[in-house]
Recover the amino acids of this structure.
């Protein structure tokens, strides 16, 4: 048993190479019991490889995996305590919903009455009580994924692994299942790891996000931490949308940009002395329409384009002093009330506390 002070899953210095290519490089991570964690990153970043190593479906080149106090690094998948749901569902097409869910229970030679009771509970849990006699081909993609989820939970595993389980579904079904999976996790309290390249999934579902890039972990934090305080330029770019701006250090808390000095509230990177280049990251929603002439950090801009996105508009703003436009997100009502159109001139304000600074021109 794992104590309240020990992590439920401990990944220590895990690396994986395929010849000269390193898919993972010295990855270390601790997961407490009952947490919902998302491995987030672009294709090829190593997130699925890490998930498969945790499951024993891949063998690490080096490093250790400890689950519930037991070193499982060399154990085959059949001797590890997990359930897994794949992107492709991997249901048996010749078996009914009931038999797909019961498959693992029957392999353990449970009594028929116990199996029927357990399957009934699981199908009720995933909302498929009346579909037990149907075959996978008779179900929608969303229903098939629910069956796969019920099958993964059948043996009451200590760890649930989800390998991009929603990527093959349409947007409406995906959004609905996100909510359902999160509710299911809250109800069961099972430690869950989900692999995804979809930042919206990670932000809405995870207790913590592990952002990965090129076989390494860039940042671990809550959705709010990762979004509001990205640790690296990659995280600032990959999670959400950011304006990336090249600037020069002017003083301890000021940078030169667009023919003006901009105040900062964050600390400058180590070694960022006056005259050194830095990269600024500013979220589109943090660019404010200027209302007070006394405010610092203001810019004169003109509207280059307006993209209507329903409740808000993404507005491209040009500046004579800058080659790249700024992108701002303003409510559709604001854009309409101000009669903003291409060519409109206006002042905008960038709050000093909303500017992130990274070393160099990256």
């Amino acid at each position: 048993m794992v104590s309240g002070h020990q992590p439920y899953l401990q990944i220590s210095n895990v690396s994986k190479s395929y010849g000269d290519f390193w898919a993972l490089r010295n990855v270390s991570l601790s997961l407490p019991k009952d947490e919902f964690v998302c491995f987030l990153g672009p294709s090829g970043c190593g997130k699925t490889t890490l998930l498969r190593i945790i499951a024993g479906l891949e063998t690490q080149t080096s490093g250790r995996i400890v689950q519930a106090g037991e070193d499982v690094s060399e154990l085959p998948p059949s001797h590890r305590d997990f359930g897994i749901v794949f992107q492709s569902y991997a249901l048996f097409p010749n078996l009914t919903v009931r038999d797909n869910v019961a498959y693992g229970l029957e392999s353990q030679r449970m009594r028929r009455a116990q199996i029927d009771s357990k399957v009934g509970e699981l199908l009720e849990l995933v909302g498929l009580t009346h579909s037990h006699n149907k075959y996978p081909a008779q179900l929608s993609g969303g229903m098939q994924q629910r069956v796969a989820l019920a099958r993964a939970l059948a043996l009451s595993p200590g760890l649930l692994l989800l390998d991009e389980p929603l990527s093959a579904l349409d947007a409406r079904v995906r959004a609905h299942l996100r909510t359902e999976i999160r509710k299911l996790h809250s109800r069961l309290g099972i430690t869950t790891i989900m692999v995804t390249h979809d930042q919206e999934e990670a932000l809405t579902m995870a207790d913590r996000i592990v952002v990965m890039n090129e076989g390494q972990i860039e940042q671990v934090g809550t959705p709010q931490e990762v979004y509001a305080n990205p640790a690296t330029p990659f995280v600032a770019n990959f999670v959400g949308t950011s304006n990336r701006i090249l600037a020069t250090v002017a003083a301890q808390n000021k940078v030169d940009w667009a023919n003006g000095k901009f105040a900062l509230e964050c600390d400058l990177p180590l070694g960022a002395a006056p005259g050194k280049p830095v990269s600024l990251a500013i979220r589109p929603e943090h660019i404010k329409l200027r209302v007070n002439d006394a405010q610092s950090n203001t810019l004169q801009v003109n509207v280059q384009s307006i993209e209507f996105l329903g409740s808000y508009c993404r507005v491209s703003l040009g500046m004579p002093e800058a080659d790249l436009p700024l992108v701002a997100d303003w409510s559709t009502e604001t854009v309409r009330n101000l009669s903003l159109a291409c060519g409109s001139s206006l002042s905008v304000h960038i709050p000093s506390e909303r500017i992130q600074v990274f070393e160099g021109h990256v």
About this structure: The longest strand covers residues 21-31. The chain is about 25% helix and 35% strand. The first helix runs from residue 47 to 55.
